[in-house]
Amino acid sequence: MSLQELENTIEKLPPDELAKFREWFLDFDSAQFDKRIETDAHDGRLDSLADAALRDHAAGKSTPL
Fold first, then answer.
1. Which residues contact 40 (CB under 8 A, 6 or more apart)?
2. Is residue 9 part of a domain?
3. Which end of the chain has the least Cβ crowding within 10 Å, N or C?
């Protein structure tokens, strides 16, 4: 199925089915984001950001939440 076909199908959903789809997609999208963050963290892609944040905190450049 192409993206255009998918869009056309979604546009035709009745409101209750659209609400179910929206909920499903938010869960799906969140899970995909979580997997990507986990992979990036495991592979060290976030290390430089963490190091910079720790340096800034040690230098007093952070504030409590």
1. 46
2. no
3. C
